[in-house]
Write a structure and sequence with these properties.
single chain, six-stranded antiparallel beta sheet, alpha+beta, 3 helices, 6 strands, Yope Regulator, Chain: A, 110 residues
């Protein structure tokens, strides 16, 4: 698999708005951005990959541009894919980045 390099660059620009340190890692055939070792957001093919806390999953999955992240025939827990129409604007992308960062921080107990 490949990933949308322009999307990855846009994610990086959004992450620069935060005081946090992020690392990049190739995962799932794409690129993931990690906060203190916890995957928060990434790009796979043309999709945005986002970690979402359990309590917010159903609300996110009800959005037209969102679907469960599914590689093996079973949706992965607390992972979603967002199609291009769902991250078209910078405001939309920033909202997804914030959601992914929320998940990482919760898992770290922050």
């Amino acid at each position: 698999m490949a990933y949308n390099i322009d999307l990855a660059k846009r994610i990086g620009i959004c992450l620069d708005l935060f005081q946090e340190q992020f690392t990049q890692k190739k995962m799932f055939g794409g690129i993931a951005f990690l906060y203190k070792g916890k995957m928060a957001i990434g790009a796979i093919n043309q999709d945005l990959m986002v970690r979402v806390i359990s309590e917010k999953m159903q609300t996110q999955l009800e959005k037209k541009s969102v679907r469960p992240m599914d590689f093996t025939g079973t949706p992965m827990k607390e992972f979603i894919f967002v199609s291009e129409e769902g991250y078209h604007s910078e405001e939309q992308l920033l909202a997804w980045v914030e959601l992914g960062l929320e998940h990482a921080k919760l898992k770290l107990g922050e």
